[in-house]
């Protein structure tokens, strides 16, 4: 069973219901099509703690990130972590950190319309 976490942008949480991510996961669509042939469960839907927050200056965020390695096998970064075609720099650094923790990182969740 592949344990899947989704990690999103804090700003998106102001208007986003998460339905795009959940629909894509439930239908094994877009970036979740890779789980069509293997069992997968969604174990986390987390958001960053806002611009300027980092695991070095935000203990809560550090704990949240650390917890991912115990609960998930793979972390998908939400479509909201890319703005105008450019990935948020924090997310880029987080991807490197998560991979260093032994987690698989996938950049994307649902298709962006
Ligand atoms: S640091 Fe990046 S992912 Fe987090 S709120 Fe800011 S733009 Fe969004």
Characterize the structure shown.
By secondary structure, this protein is an alpha/beta fold. The protein has one domain: Rossmann fold. It has three helices and six strands. The strands form two sheets. A four-stranded parallel β-sheet has the order 2-1-3-6, with helices on one face. A hairpin with a 2-residue loop joins strand 4 and strand 5. The protein is globular. The mean pLDDT is 96. Bound molecules: iron/sulfur cluster. Iron/sulfur cluster (SF4) binds next to helix 3. Iron/sulfur cluster binds next to helix 3.
Helix amount, in percent?
25-40%
Sheet with most strands = 4 strands, parallel
Radius of gyration: 13 Å
Mass-distribution shape: globular
- Tell me the strand order in the biggest sheet: 2-1-3-6
Q: Please indicate the count of domains.
A: 1
Number of H- or I-type helical stretches: 3
Assess the beta-strand content as a share of residues: 15-25%
Structural class: alpha/beta
Query: Distance between the terminal alpha carbons, to the nearest Å?
Result: 30 Å
Question: Which molecules are bound in this entry?
Answer: iron/sulfur cluster
Averaged pLDDT: 96
Q: Output the CATH class name.
A: Alpha Beta
In the CATH hierarchy, the third-tier topology is known as Rossmann fold
Total beta strands: 6
Level-2 CATH architecture: 3-Layer(aba) Sandwich
SSE layout and pairing:
Layout: E1 2-8, H1 19-26, E2 40-47, H2 59-71, E3 74-77, E4 82-83, E5 86-87, H3 89-100, E6 104-107
Parallel strand pairs: 1-2, 1-3, 3-6
Antiparallel strand pairs: 4-5
The protein binds iron/sulfur cluster.
Iron/sulfur cluster binds near residues 9, 50, 51 and 90.
